[in-house]
Amino acid sequence: MTTRRIAVIGDGKMGRTVARLAADSGWTVAAIIGEGSNAGGKGITPATLNNAQVAIEFTEPSAAVGNITACLRAGCPVVAGTTGWYDELPSMTRLAEETKSALLWSANFSLGVNVMIELARHAGELMRATEGFDAHIVETHHSAKKDAPSGTAIQIERAVREGLGASVPVTSIRTGSVPGTHEIVFDAMFEQLTLTHNARDRSVFAAGALRAAGWLIGRKGVFTMRDVLSLPARG
């Protein structure tokens, strides 16, 4: 079997985790492009990508668009794991179409979280017909996380809102080194229902991103983890 070649954009904790897990999973890590030599994505070129078949990008919101742009213009499909840049998603979608390349983005690459988002929508639908419950979302991440609420919390809120028919408040907590916890709370006078996802290690995000990267090779267009996991189409 031909070894797949991957470029890792970002050499922070997540980038290093992706590179380590990729090597352990049989990928060839063709390039690791750190933020120090990549202002505005200028360090990403066909030469520095070193024949990578796909790239995984985990950096910061301010760097993501430049990195994605550079990968697409270099003809390299890219899995975008950074959050906080989604205002630019329409322009990145157009660029993926213009360059005939591929972009796969997700606020969270955990398989469990993506299932949780589907459950959140259904729970909202059920709670719409149930009187006396208030909904709330609480998300907790490490103190270095830049965006709040998290991209995952925004997706969960959207899913609950679509089912419930009303917006849901989100509380963001930044403390310690928590990889990521998301909780949906439905609270009534005498009872409480919660749906919780706990990420025990950042490797869960790296593993999901690598699964997405393998799926993306050879495809064109813009995708999310819904496509990778073949989740049901939304009505």
Describe this structure in words.
The protein is an alpha/beta fold and 235 residues long. It folds into 2 domains: 5-105 and 203-228, Rossmann fold; 111-199, Dihydrodipicolinate Reductase, domain 2 (2-Layer Sandwich). Helices cover 38% and strands 23% of the residues. It has 8 helices and 10 strands. The protein has helices at residues 13-24, 46-49, 61-73, 89-99, 111-128, 151-164, 203-216, 225-228, and strands at 5-9, 28-33, 54-57, 78-80, 102-105, 134-141, 170-174, 180-187, 192-199, 221-223. The strands form 2 sheets. Strands 2-1-3-4-5-10 form a 6-stranded parallel sheet, with helices on both faces. Strand 8 and strand 9 (192-199) form a beta hairpin. Helix 3 (61-73) runs parallel beside helix 4 (89-99). The radius of gyration is 18 Å and the shape is elongated.
Structural class of the helix and strand makeup?
Answer: alpha/beta
CATH topology tier name of the largest domain: Rossmann fold
How large a portion of the residues is in β-strands, by DSSP E?
15-25%
Low-pLDDT runs of 5+ residues are none
- CATH architect. name of the largest domain: 3-Layer(aba) Sandwich
Radius of gyration: 18 Å
The top level CATH class name of the largest domain: Alpha Beta
